[in-house]
Amino acid sequence: MDKNMQPIRTILLRPNAKKDDGFAVSRGTATYLLSRGAAVLVPDALLPAFAGIGVLGESAGIVPELILSLGGDGTVLAASEEAIARDVPLLGINMGRLGFLAELETDQLKKLDALFTGEYTVTRRMTLSVSADLGEGETELPGYPLNDVVFSHDREDGLALLSLSDQAGNVIDYHADGLILATPSGSTAYTLSAGGPIVDDEMDAICVTPVCPHSFFNRSVIFGRDARLTVENRSPLGRDVTVSLDGRERLRLPFGSAVTVGRSDHPLKMLSFDRHAVLSTLNRKMQMADMKYRNE
Predict the structure, then answer these.
(1) β-pairing, 206-211 with 221-223?
(2) Class for domain 10-125+267-295, per CATH?
(3) How far apart are CA 13 and CA 82, in angstroms?
């Protein structure tokens, strides 16, 4: 965790048009930042939606010091690839329900003042590196998933047979609907829904959780930071398995082919104003999500 940070003055907004009708929240956020003297950038294609308030397009050539995501956790995940590529911190404003990856809610814009005084911290979240061997050697897949790598099958094809092995050659077979390999950040996403544990995001670990396993062994297994885990498709009748990275399908894995997952050398920098312990974060987010459900 980095402390005593420098003030931030150039901010790139990444809004979600589906979450932010008419970009009302994004415009309000931009206006607030501009009033504090920040330079605010948006994608050139969105400039008409932000007309009249003084924002700049990305083509202006100004290098952002922060990416500000406005939407749900999916919006944070989409922006994480760019934040890693630019090597700048990412900050999320939640417009979804849980928003585990987001730091702020839409009614907490005043906390953004800390950007201009350096009163914030930057944490580094573990991401994953993923490579596939389709019989012609190992090829690295693009991107560094922040949440998870998920192996799943087509429902009409019956259960998948997925063979998990570590770098020491230890093997376990899963007959299941799928298999999730998650980071600590991802332990609050699909893994949580599948009954897996919540892992403190200050750790570096890979949590493996089967999805609806046809076995009495249905527990998650947590591997250390240096683990390299290989999943081979051994499904009956030569059926393919789908491999998704952070919810986006990236590969159809043929029978006999394998994907290897490990900790990447490209962590995501995430900006925080109030560093909460995992239990307080979980309690706070669950309470807010419950209120949103009841008010719908």
Answers:
(1) antiparallel
(2) alpha beta
(3) 12
The C-alpha atoms of residue 230 and residue 190 are separated, in whole angstroms, by 20
DSSP string, 167-179: TT--EEEEEESEE
- Per-residue buried b or exposed e for 70-96, using 16+ beta carbons within 10 Å of the residue's own CB: bbbbbbbbbbbbebbebebbbbbbbbb
Burial class (CB in 10 A: 0-12, 13-18, 19+), 204: middle
Dmax over Cα atoms in the chain, in whole Å?
63
Tell me the pLDDT tens digit for each residue of 256-265. Answer: 999 999 999 9
Strand 248-253 to 241-245 pairing: antiparallel
107 in catalytic set: no
Backbone phi, psi, residue 244, to 5°: -115, 140
Does residue 127 contact residue 52 with C-beta atoms inside 8 Å?
no
In this predicted model, what pLDDT tens digit does every residue of 36-75 receive, in sequence order?
999 999 999 999 999 999 999 999 999 999 999 999 999 9
Enumerate the domain spans of the chain: 10-125+267-295, 128-263
* Main-chain phi, psi angles of 260, to 5 degrees: -115, 135
Read off the amino acid at residue 226: D
Name the DSSP class of 202: T
Residue from 38, 26, 115 nearest 70 by CA? 26
Q: Look up residue 129 and give its amino acid.
A: S
Q: Which residues contact 175 (CB under 8 A, 6 or more apart)?
A: 159, 160, 161, 213, 214, 215
Cα–Cα distance list, 96 to 7, 51, 243 (Å):
28, 26, 25
Determine which one of 20, 21, 44, 73 is catalytic.
73
pTM for this predicted structure? 0.90
Tokens found for residue 170: 């230890």
Cα(115)–Cα(109) distance, integer angstroms? 11
Give me the pLDDT at residue 1, please: 61
Is 2.60.200.30 the CATH classification of the domain at 128-263? yes
